[in-house]
Amino acid sequence: MKEIDYLGVVNSDAILANSHFTANRIRSIYGVSAKVCYPPVDIEAFNILEEESLREFRKSFGWPLILSTGRIVAVKRWEWLIEIMSYVVRDFPAATLAITGEISKENVEYIRKLLKLAKRLGIEKNVRFLGFKSQKELVELYNAADAYVYSVPKEDFGLGPVEAMACGTPSVVWNDGGGPCETVIDGETGFKADPYDIKDFAEKTMKTVEIDRAEISSKTRSFVEENFSCERHMKVLEETIQKLR
To answer: Can you give the pTM of this predicted structure?
Structure first.
């Protein structure tokens, strides 16, 4: 399978990568160059909602609301977020860490371990697993959140931070060279934490919560519109295909 994989890549007429991080990995493994074509975000669906429409929705969570989304599997290192939250609640006792993602027989045991960790750290009331959410529900959560956190190490791209920023919410990611480093501008659309410093990530999360939302939301939204829209994605894709004709 390794040989088939190698031949399939090196004999391709064009190679697209979902980030510069992935493109560099392709170069080191296969010795070929790849063009970066960022995954698109539907900026019409993932948008900034009116504040008035979120008031009732926010009441079901403590303040601040810290959100994370994605597949709940061990390789994503969700236990780091639980540990990060144990620092956050020292300054924000009512804070809620809301995690979305399918809960199934494949990951339920892992989720139990995460809940046990939260209990051992004394923050079980601050952590909520919300299960699978529809796109509409995700948009509401992204808008309601005071900070979006993504603690996955060396992620190839990471769509969650970009979707959150499209909804006006700043993101916190690791400054580990992974894909999210390309989607978050440190100090402008969110923050990058020292890898893999749990305390620093917690401090960056609390710093994010204290940012003036009205000021940063326009920056995050504009950044996503410029770099991660469907139009931008299709432009790169079409240019690549045209060159092959």
So the answer is: 0.95
